[in-house]
Amino acid sequence: IMARRLIAVLLIFLLALSIAACSIQKKDKGTSGSNQTSTTGTNALKDETTDTTGGDKDTSEPAGSDQSGSAADESGAKEAMETGLSMGYRTDIVLVYKDSKVTRSWEDHSIPESPTYIISCRSYSPYEEVAKYYKDIISGLTILQVYIDSEDSYHVDAAINDQGEVSVRVDKERYEEYSEGAKCNVTLMYRKPKKAELPEGYRTDLLPVMEGSRLKTSAVRDKGYDGIEYTAQFLTTKGYEEVVEFYKAITKSLDQHIEPERSISQGTVDKVWIYLDIEKLPEGTKYSVMMIDRSKVGLD
Questions:
Q1: Contact predicate 170/159, CB 8 Å
Q2: Considering the chain, what is the average pLDDT of its residues?
């Protein structure tokens, strides 16, 4: 009987030990699973935000140890800064041709109120194709002057109503073996409009401004005993003949010299010497005025 009781006690003790051991093992397993879930979640977030390849990133090296990557970033930023477009350049007016590579971009603030933005590019399309592209754009603007229009070079200035002026130059690449495959070079310029106003004292009663004209530049200068000099330059989309006809009647008392593409009138009215120069443009007309008011100095 005593032996049976001892065996029963031992069995109960062993059963208690077994239950305790299972409980501890289960608790350890639960803790391990919790840690694994947390680590996986952190890695998933890190992969989503920093690893675009989808693989595991080695974080054993300290931050900043990859000097080659840092140098590449600085080089890329420098290249973007050197070849990127100037902030003020109007790509909505004159676009950079589709396959062109910008080689230089800079700004000219020598006239603060009318800054100029310039871009140099290399194009890998044939010269004829690039030149035609820009000719089509310029055809919709007021052409101020055509410098060159040949089989290997095109250079023109144009005005965009009250939005400023542009200049386009396309040159055929003569040394393709040294140009990395580029077939032509392009230089684009955009100049912001300078806000111009007729100076106080300008005699519009003697020489009115034709309706539809845009004042491009104006200035006033005191010439001492010679009087006060006023200058102004205007652009209009109206035809040359229409502008000449408008001012012909107004300046009939002046000496007039009218030619098919340029007209000049000059003389004195009410002690004001007037010089009017009307010039035909490929698209529209440009006319310049100079007045010297001598009424306040007693000179004729």
A1: no
A2: 75
